[in-house]
Amino acid sequence: MEALKKPVGYYDDLEISVEEAISNAALPDCLFYFKDLKQRKFFLPTEIEAETVGDILRHIMQINREDMGTPPEERKPILIYISCRGGSLDDGLSVIDAIENSITPVYTINIGYAYSMGFLIALAGHKRFCTKNAMFLMHDGTDFVVDSSAKAMDRLEFNKRMEDRLKQYVVSHSKITKEEYEQKYRVEWYMFAEEAKGNGFVDSIVGEDCDLTSII
After folding, report:
1. Burial class (CB in 10 A: 0-12, 13-18, 19+), 11
2. Is the pLDDT of residue 114 over 90?
């Protein structure tokens, strides 16, 4: 049971002194980074790729480690703010898995736009918020296959299996049916906050269902 004890030295121990930071010529961005880290706030990058999501993955894992022994309902939630145009499906799925496997609650907050892969990540939140003018986009994405004929066919077959997994994921995280998903999947389905909420893609609209304090 020794391994289950809360480790020594964790994010809540971070002490931030503006005066000391200024005297040491620290950059303002660094100050905000450490303040956000202490408050469990993370910002999904505009473009999803391995280099841009690594921090979020590490921090979700670390925070869950620090929260071991604390009941989920007593844990301070992780906040992920989203203004994202999409990106790598492979890397985006790793973020989705980290969010869904997190015992510490993870809230996703669309503060501008959640397009393509950003849309799929936004769906994964244990609670899902957006601002009044936030926008969403669901579509089939873009893929290129440049290889031998046999390998290209293998890739296309795998893509079909991936499409089925994504359909199950979206349907299970929303109010739309499989039939509605199939009708919309191959078009550019843009939505504002009200339509996204009506389809079950988001739970609360900030300014209507809750106030700003719910997401800060």
Report:
1. middle
2. yes
Do 210 and 153 touch, CB atoms closer than 8 A?
A: no
CB 48, CB 95: distance < 8 Å: yes
pTM of the model: 0.85
Query: 91: how many CB neighbours lie within 10 A of its CB?
Result: 18
Quickly state the pLDDT bin for 23 (edges 50, 70, 90): low
What SS3 class is residue 190? strand
**The predicted structure's pLDDT at residue 24:** 62
83 vs 39: CA distance, rounded Å: 19
Instruction: Note whether 129 and 206 are within 8 A (CB).
Output: yes
Is 2 a residue whose pLDDT tops 50? no
Q: What is the band of 160 on the pLDDT scale with cuts at 50, 70, 90? A: confident
DSSP string, 51-108: HHHHHHHHHHHHHHHHTTTS-GGGSPPEEEEEEE-EE-HHHHHHHHHHHHH-SS-EEE
